[in-house]
Amino acid sequence: MSNYFSRFGQLSEANMKFMLSLLQEGRLSKGEKLIEANQRVDNIYCLEVGFLHYYSYSELGERITLNVISPNSCWTVLESFYNQEPANGECLALTDVKYYTLARPDYMRIKLENPELNSLIQTITEQILSAKVIEANNRSKMTIEERYLHLLHSNPALVQQVPVAIIASLLGTSRETLHRIRRKLTAA
Fold first, then answer.
1. Of 39, 60, 98, 105, which shows the fewest CB atoms inside 10 Å?
2. Same domain, 65 and 124
3. Residues 115 and 155 occupy one common structural domain
4. What separation in angstroms does the CA of 13 have from each of 2, 6, 18, 115, 117?
5. Cβ neighbours of residue 141 under 8 Å, at least 6 residues apart?
6. One domain, residues 182 and 134
7. Are 95 and 40 in contact (CB under 8 A)?
8. Based on the structure, what is the number of domains in the chain?
């Protein structure tokens, strides 16, 4: 995880060791849930290996993908983590997963006591927020095919390892439409 944190700025050796000491390792097998519906989320998750699927259900009971979390990224349900409200969705492992958690009390302690680590965590949080804004912009400005091509170029491992139905839901389309787009691109 130290390589991941180093991407956001230089940390002193003491602060890097301290940060790593706060993280708790976790593992999930494919299909295991990380977050249940209506659970309060009290952790920031740093994914080292595997893919997570964060989703909710429509009024008709259809599963709607809210996010697919890839390796080498940090993620949380922001609304739940910051406002201490239950999460609207559920999160499960699409593959075997290895992750680290930073618990909310440790996060709060860092914010109050350690300016260097607070700056690091603020940068990571800004990255999470920025990704949400970029995704919203892409949804409003790009066609489904353009979104798929963007995903294919920005995260090819996700396209290769995540089921087509989940990718389609992430893109805001049906599995059938995504199959047509993929056939069209393959034929071109």
1. 60
2. yes
3. no
4. 10, 11, 9, 15, 12
5. none
6. no
7. no
8. 2
Of 92, 40, 32, 27, residue with least CA distance to 63: 92
Indicate the DSSP class of residue 82. Answer: H
Q: Where are the alpha helices (DSSP H) in the chain?
A: 2-6, 13-22, 78-83, 104-113, 115-141, 144-154, 156-161, 164-171, 175-187
Structure letter (DSSP) for residue 51 = -
User: Do both 111 and 166 map to the same domain?
Assistant: no
Backbone angles phi, psi at 58, to 5 degrees: -75, 175
Q: Quick one: DSSP state of residue 31?
A: T
Residues 6+ apart with CB under 8 A from 45: 34, 52, 69, 74, 75, 76, 99, 100, 101
CB atoms within 10 A of CB 174: 13
Render pLDDT for 58-75 as a digit per residue (tens, 0 to 9).
899 889 999 999 998 888
CA distance 24 to 158: 25
**Are 124 and 8 a contacting pair, CB within 8 Å?**
yes
| pLDDT tens profile 157-175 | 999 999 999 999 999 899 9
Q: What is the pTM of this model?
A: 0.87
